[in-house]
Amino acid sequence: MSDRSGKFAGDDPFEIARAWLAEAEETEINDPNAMALATVDQSGLPNVRMVLLKSIGADSFVFYTNYESAKGAEIAASGKAALVLHWKSLRRQIRVRGTVTREDGPEADAYFASRSLKSRLGAWASKQSQPLGSRADLMAEVARVTAAKGPNPPRPAYWGGFRIAPVEIEFWADGAFRLHDRFVWRRETHENAWEITRLSP
Predict the structure, then answer these.
(1) What InterPro entries does this protein map onto (predicted)?
(2) Predicted pLDDT of residue 67
(3) Has 111 been labeled as part of a binding site?
(4) I need a surface site. Which of 29, 62, 79, 171 has the fewest CB within 10 A?
(5) Has 117 been labeled as part of a binding site?
(6) According to the model, what pLDDT value does residue 71 have?
(7) Given this model, what pLDDT does residue 6 score?
(8) Is 42 part of any known ligand binding site?
(9) Is 120 tagged catalytic?
(10) Ordered mean pLDDT values, 10 residues apiece, the chain (201 residues)
(11) Which contacts qualify for 13-19: CB closer than 8 Å, 24 or more apart?
(12) What tens digit of pLDDT does each residue of 180-198 get?
C-alpha cells in the first residue's frame, strides 16, 4: 500500500502491534495491556469482558485465565475469539479475530511462578464464574488454600494461557473530521500470506 506509512508501516502485523503497545505503555495511565475479549456461548450469544494481554508473540496474542471460567469454556467449545485493544491517549485501536489454542506448558508454569503470591493463591481459591455465597466465603477459601499450598503454590491444572492466532488484524487510528485511517490484514489460514486492505472510516 503506497499510503501505508508512519505508524502503519511494516511487513509484520505483530511487530506493528508490539510497537503500538510500547507507545501506549508510555502514555496510558492504567493497564495499557487491557483488552476486550469476545467469545460466544453455545447458543451463539456473545460475551465480552476486559482481560489483560500478557504478550504479543511472533504469531499470536497471549493472555492467561482460569480454563473453567465462562470465557475458558466458551473458547474450548468454539476454538475462536476476538479482542480489541483501545488506547484513548493515542486515539488508536487494534482489532483481532482468530483461532485459539492453550498455552499450558513450561511457559505457563514460568508465568504463574512470576506472579505475586496473593495472585497465585487467588487462582487456587477462586472458582471463577461460579456462584459465590459471600465475600467471607471467598476469604475463608483463600485462608484454607494458603494453609494447604504454602508459600510456593504450583500452577493449577485449570489455570493457564490462551494464544489467539489471528486470521484478521485491523489497525485503526483517529483522523480529522472523523475520517479515520483503517488497515486490515487478512489471511485465509495461518499458512497463507497476509492481504492488506485500506478500509473506509
Answers:
(1) Pyridox_Oxase (IPR000659), Pyridox_Oxase_CS (IPR019740), Pyridox_Oxase_N (IPR011576), Pyridoxamine_oxidase_dimer_C (IPR019576), Split_barrel_FMN-bd (IPR012349)
(2) 97
(3) yes
(4) 29
(5) no
(6) 97
(7) 87
(8) no
(9) no
(10) 79 97 95 98 96 97 97 97 97 97 95 95 92 94 92 94 98 83 94 93 89
(11) 13/166, 13/169, 13/171, 13/185, 13/194, 14/56, 14/57, 14/58, 14/59, 16/171, 17/56, 17/61, 17/85, 17/94, 17/169, 17/171, 18/56
(12) 899 999 999 988 999 999 9
- Indicate if the alpha-carbon torsion angle 67, 68, 72, 73 is positive or negative: positive
Q: Which cell goes with 31?
A: 493497564
49 a known binding residue? yes
Judged by DSSP in three states, 18 sits in: helix
Of the candidates 26, 28, 48, 31, the residue with the CA atom closest to the CA atom of residue 39? 48
pLDDT value of position 2: 53
Q: What sign has the CA pseudo-torsion 21, 26, 29, 31?
A: positive
**172: annotated binding-site residue?**
yes
* Set of cell numbers at residue 98: 482468530
Q: Which among 95, 120, 178, 198 is annotated as catalytic?
A: 178
- The Cα–Cα gap between 179 and 168 comes to 22
Q: Is 157 helix (H, G, I), strand (E, B) or coil?
A: coil
Q: Is 37 annotated as a binding residue?
A: no
